[in-house]
Amino acid sequence: MHQILHVVSDIQWGSMPELSIIIPCFNEQKGIALFIHKLQKLRPQCEVILVDGGSDDKTVQIAEPFVDLLIHSPCGRAQQMNAGAEKACSNVLIFLHADTFLPDDAVSQIQQALQEGYRWGRFDIRLTGGHWFLPVISYFMNIRSAISGIITGDQALFIDKSLFKEVGCYPNIAIMEDIALAKNLKKYGKPFRVYSCVHSSARRWLQYGVYKTILLMWCLRLEYFLGIDPKQLAQQYQGGQFWKS
Question: What pLDDT is recorded for position 98?
């Protein structure tokens, strides 16, 4: 069971926030201050919910004064994001990784999507880092999503809360929960594509090697579609390995 740890009363609760931004995090001490600072300009129009998965660094202490709701949850992105969605006050949810920054027009773009009748969508992505091949990866990630309708977690999925509940929220699996959710959502229509890019850190790509990570991610997706246990895939992902050691 998750537990509400802290509520900040900056939001005028008499009027519902337009969007609830749900951020799963775990040991993000290094970058959380800048990330949370960037979100302050969206409050109180947006409710900021941080769902911590048991960080043992200073993530919670740094972020706590600057969020509207802080929740403690068992570690695992699916569980954390579902916990945040359950407590969200808005009818529209955005799921945002703690190393991904929204574009300045994020709220207006989501409003446009809703006005056009879309119930879910995502942003184009730009991976940030020094490697020359990252823009190429970003380009093909955006093309892949446009063609397939599949959304990965770092593309900042937004969704009508009632639809999120209707499809059963994020499947409680160790990895690939974003792909599983997108597959379910495609039955309800196409996602809205926001061409304004979120900027997402390529730290994992740089840590394990850009080309190796490309191959690893494709291997993991193939194994997932072949029915390999997501727990095993999560171990491979965490270790940057093509197979379980």
Answer: 96
Q: Which residues have C-beta within 8 Å of that of residue 70, sequence separation ≥ 6?
A: 4, 5, 6, 7, 49, 50, 52, 60, 63, 64
Q: How far apart are CA 6 and CA 138, in angstroms?
A: 36
Give the number of other CB atoms < 10 A from CB of residue 144.
Answer: 12
What is the pLDDT at residue 208? Answer: 87
CB 155 within 8 A of CB 181: no
Give 130-159 pLDDT, tens digit per residue: 899 999 999 999 999 999 999 999 999 999
Average pLDDT on 178-198 reads: 96
- Is the pTM higher than 0.85? yes
What domains appear along the chain, each with residue ranges and CATH number? 3-203 (3.90.550.10)
Rounded to whole angstroms, the Cα distance separating 53 from 83 reads: 11
Per the DSSP assignment, residues forming a β-bridge with 24 are 51
User: Which DSSP category does 3 fall into?
Assistant: E
Q: Is the dihedral of CA 215, 193, 162, 167 positive or negative?
A: negative
Identify whether the C-beta of residue 42 lies closer than 8 Å to the C-beta of residue 21. yes
Cα–Cα distance for residue pair 211/64, rounded to 1 Å: 37
* Cα–Cα distances in angstroms (integers) from residue 1 to residues 49, 86, 124, 186, in the given order: 17, 12, 34, 30
